[in-house]
Design brief:
Layout: H1 13-23, E1 34-35, E2 41-47, H2 54-61, H3 64-67, E3 70-76, H4 80-88, E4 94-98, H5 99-107, E5 112-121, H6 125-131, E6 141-145, E7 161-164, H7 170-181, E8 190-193, H8 196-205, E9 210-214, H9 217-223, E10 227-230, H10 232-237, E11 240-248, H11 249-254, H12 256-275, H13 277-288, H14 292-297, H15 309-321
Parallel strand pairs: 2-3, 2-4, 7-8, 7-9
Antiparallel strand pairs: 1-2, 4-11, 5-11, 6-9, 6-10
């Protein structure tokens, strides 16, 4: 998932945590992993039903985790807040989150460590997009406006009503960043939270002036006459890891060998997905239950092979500059 996909506010995690903890193992039970017959160790991974999760599933299918002595159970998590809740509530050993929700969670005192890259942009992605005249689709998130809208730049979103899936979450932050880069004042944007499904009719009816969408809703909006104003993800992150596989600090400290084996398996899985895009897209269609032809109409995910602290630091600096964080965390200590 690139920026913004299926995000909700972290406040929603309180309810999710209670629900997950009620039906799953306790924190004590997940402080270490269980060893099965034959020496393999069982781990639970919380994954969102998004296209970039295809690499994880391919890694399982290809036996990369089994080669590392890991028996993986994938638990579907609805959103990044649910991922944080799953880790805290003892429902998963590893979980997916974009970098900005993770940074918000850290600011609220949640102890997390980054263990592997989940998705993002290749090196030089922003420069290549700029060189193309911004004529290509570099991202699976976009800001769209009506076909006849006078809005021609993110700067024009000042004073306008812009729909995002959740307030103060990643898609809002990236759109705010685009507004600022275009010379506008993000504080003057009138944000409203709507589900992805409700955004298109809201734009058609004139209830909102712009919408922040993700694939496949970007393609659906375009088919109904909406036009893309901007791709806010790539202009914010530029390159490198955006989606992350994370674990709690206590789990990392107690299980360093398992963490390293998980990292090695994910590295192989990411490399395989990048080298076999057609196969990855088929797997993504299975994971998301989105028709393959819709996924193929958009930009496929990219799976980085590592997470650099500078990539997280860049996201944190954007959040600080825009007022979404009061201070940057020590990113060098975040990446295992």
């Amino acid at each position: 998932m690139r920026p913004g996909t299926k995000l909700v506010t972290l406040a929603a995690a309180i309810t999710t945590t209670a629900a997950l903890a009620a039906c799953g193992p306790t924190n004590a039970e997940l402080s270490s992993v269980g060893q099965e017959e034959g020496g393999r160790q069982a781990i639970t991974v919380g994954a969102l039903p998004i296209a970039s999760s295809a690499a994880l599933h391919l890694g399982i299918d290809k036996g990369y985790f089994a080669e590392e002595g890991l028996d993986v159970t994938v638990q579907s998590i609805p959103n990044p807040a649910g991922a944080m809740a799953a880790l805290q509530g003892g429902q998963a050993h590893f979980a997916y989150t974009p970098s900005m929700p993770m940074l918000t969670a850290l600011s609220q005192g949640i102890d997390l460590k980054v263990v592997a890259a989940a998705d993002g942009y290749p090196e030089g992605a922003y420069e290549q997009w700029e060189a193309s005249g911004r004529t290509t689709q570099p991202d699976d998130t976009a800001v769209l406006v009506g076909e006849q809208s006078p809005i021609s730049s993110p700067r024009d979103l000042e004073g306008k009503i812009v729909a995002v899936p959740a307030r103060k979450a990643q898609l809002e932050v990236t759109i705010a960043s685009s507004v600022k880069q275009a010379g506008g004042d993000p504080a003057k944007v009138k944000w409203i939270a709507l589900s992805f499904q409700d955004m298109i009719p809201a734009l058609e009816s004139g209830r909102v002036d712009a919408i922040g969408e993700v694939t496949p809703f970007v393609e659906q909006a375009k088919s109904k006459g909406a036009r893309v104003l901007d791709y806010p993800g790539i202009s914010t992150f530029r390159e490198g890891a955006v989606g992350l596989w994370v674990a709690t600090g206590s789990f990392v400290e107690s299980n360093p060998d398992v963490v390293q084996r998980f990292r090695r398996a994910m590295h192989k899985a990411n490399s395989y997905a990048n080298e076999h895009i057609d196969e990855a897209q088929v797997k993504a269609a299975e994971v998301t239950r989105i028709p393959l032809e819709i996924l193929e109409a958009g930009e496929p995910p990219y799976w980085p092979d590592a997470v650099e602290p500078a990539e997280i630091d860049r996201a944190a600096q954007v959040m600080v500059d825009l007022g979404y964080l009061t201070a940057k965390p020590a990113t060098d200590a975040l990446v295992v």
